[in-house]
Amino acid sequence: MTALTLSTAAAPGLRTDAIVVGVAKAAGSKSGDLAVAPGAEAVDKAYDGRLAGVLETLGASGGEGEVTKLPAPSGLKAPLVVAVGLGALPEKDGSFSAETLRRAAGVAARALAGTKKAAFALPVSDAADAGAIGEGVLLGSYSFDAYKEAAKDGNGSKKGKAPLVEATLLGGKSRDKAFKAAIERATAVSEELNRARDLINTPPNDLNPEAFAAVAQAAAKEHGIKVQVLDEKALAKGGYGGILGVGAGSASAPRLVKLSYTSSKAKKHLAFIGKGITYDSGGISLKPAGHNETMKCDMSGAAAVFAAVVSAARLGLEVNVTGWLALAENMPSGSATRPGDVLRMYSGKTVEVLNTDAEGRLVLADALAKASEEKPDAIVDVATLTGAMMLALGNRTFGIMANDDAFRTAVHEAAEEVGEPAWPMPLPEHLKKGMDSPTADIANMGERYGGGLVAGLFLREFVGEGITWAHLDIAGPAFNEQGPFGYTPKGGTGSAVRTLVRLAELTAAGDLG
Fold first, then answer.
1. In whole angstroms, what is the distance from residue 247 CA to residue 296 CA?
2. How far apart are CA 219 and CA 46, in angstroms?
3. Core vs surface per residue 1-12: b (16+ CB within 10 A) or e
4. Taking Cα atoms as reference points, which of 217, 200, 213 lies closest to residue 254?
5. Residue among 397, 510, 410 nearest 470 (CA)
6. Which of 173, 287, 349, 460 is catalytic?
7. Which of 137, 142, 176, 305 has the fewest beta carbons closer than 10 A?
8. Half-sphere exposure of 193 toward its Cβ, with a 13 Å CA cutoff?
9. Over the range 261-278, which residues count as b (16 or more CB within 10 Å of their CB) and which as e?
10. 221/229 Cα distance (integer angstroms)
């Protein structure tokens, strides 16, 4: 991954392959509608103060996500200047939001693929800005080419446009504790988020439940996290009917992985639960053509939980975090669960399976009941759960449901703070009646309309009494089928990782409940 360093050096004297500067829309600027953003003053001086004018001549507008490359003047040792749009120049204090800086750095980093060294002269007013830029660089330079032989030379080494190798963030003090901590945090979280992206992008023939569990075990050993893996025999002995029922049709047996990070100074305990369907065919309720091709991403919730627990360990957060990865492959076969079957869940409740493609809630239900036994202060589950949530919120926003309004608000605020679009959703009680079953305690399907909310109501039934709980339906933003934008690549995105990490940080600081 790209290496990050901080520097107070002046941009003109840096021996680097490119210098990144920010430009913004500013109707009142001397150059017309374009203004050079703070941090790039020395670069602008090298252009005799005419950088904005030159960029306008080249068609630059300063819009977010816009990249303009131009040759550097003789006053710079770097041969290339990369101007990235920041959008409108802030009217109040002149400070750009962390998310604006994060996205701009991500766009620039991706545009610099194939470049070894680059200096980022973007606006930095404090350590938080430096951290946001660092995150943007590390997330924006991500690429997944493990399966592309065309990206390798005859010796097996990668060739072509490799990700940016080194990034120097200007305006940050390398010996300042706050700046140093911000970069260390950005590195740890980004590395784990990118590992989650790798897992999501890995083909399902190479990432079944057993393989995912092995990855988790290796990471746990590396970072001092306790790990427990329940295989099919242990699941059967323990009565995990939901997980076993979903995995019954596959040749790859299911797993339940428990990751436990503990801090001697912790006063609170959080439980994160991730849906880990390593491939979802829909089972007997087979998905129609055109809906199967990206179903390797149905384990994105488990990938997010895994990354968040490891991040908490790497950051040494003073909070106990337990991650539960409910792993199964949903396939049709002679042994698969059928519509009409009744499963006895870990909690003891029975569920009539009306649709085997509503399988995520079944594996989560077992994990929710198990996690509740430890009486954590709060539980958050993450899942690519329903197409209905995508219809409601689109492809870039995840829904938040909870059994506590204040906690739902806190989760929403945490998500927005780290730049993950989310929206609070209700749990209307009248929708619960649609899951009444004449055969079992509850059915796994209810009314068609409001299907994402119905799924949330189903999950709530398996949360222990008195435990604060939230459900994140990341079906939309978990996998980007369109082109890359900001620091988000095509394919697996790592959605919800940063929200979970922020929740852990807030809990450790005593600022969350």
1. 15
2. 47
3. bbebebbeeebb
4. 213
5. 410
6. 287
7. 176
8. 27
9. bebeebebbbbbbbbbbb
10. 13
> Cβ contacts of residue 454 below 8 Å, gap of 6+?
431, 434, 435, 445, 446, 447
Q: What is the pLDDT of residues 429-443, one digit of tens each?
A: 999 999 999 999 999
Contact predicate 59/159, CB 8 Å: no
Amino acid at 175: R
- CB-based contact 445:358 (threshold 8 Å): yes
Q: Can you read off the two tokens belonging to residue 302?
A: 């488990």
311-359: per-residue pLDDT in tens?
Answer: 999 999 999 999 999 999 999 999 999 999 999 999 999 999 999 999 9
Angle of the 300-315 helix axis to the 209-223 helix axis, nearest 10: 10
Distances in whole angstroms, Cα of residue 184 to Cα of each of 181, 296, 319:
5, 31, 19
Neighbours of 147 (CB within 10 A): 10
Q: Write the CA distances from 263 to 143, 316, 321, 480, 511, integer angstroms.
A: 33, 7, 9, 35, 17
The tens digit of pLDDT for each residue in 36-75 reads 999 999 999 999 999 999 999 999 999 999 999 999 999 9
- Phi, psi for residue 5 in degrees, rounded to 5: -140, 155
Structure tokens at 478: 């978990």
Q: Which of 255, 361, 370, 408 is catalytic?
A: 361
Find the angle CA(399)-CA(358)-CA(235) to the nearest 5 degrees: 105
**Helix, strand, coil percent content, the chain, rounded in steps of 5:** 35, 25, 40
Distance in angstroms (rounded) separating the CA atoms of residues 161 and 170? 25
% pLDDT > 70, the chain? 96
Is 283:474 a contact under the CB 8 Å cutoff? no
Please name which of 378, 400, 387, 336 lies closest in space to residue 504, comparing C-alpha atoms. 378
Task: Provide the residue type at 334 as one letter.
Answer: G
Q: Is 50 a catalytic residue?
A: no
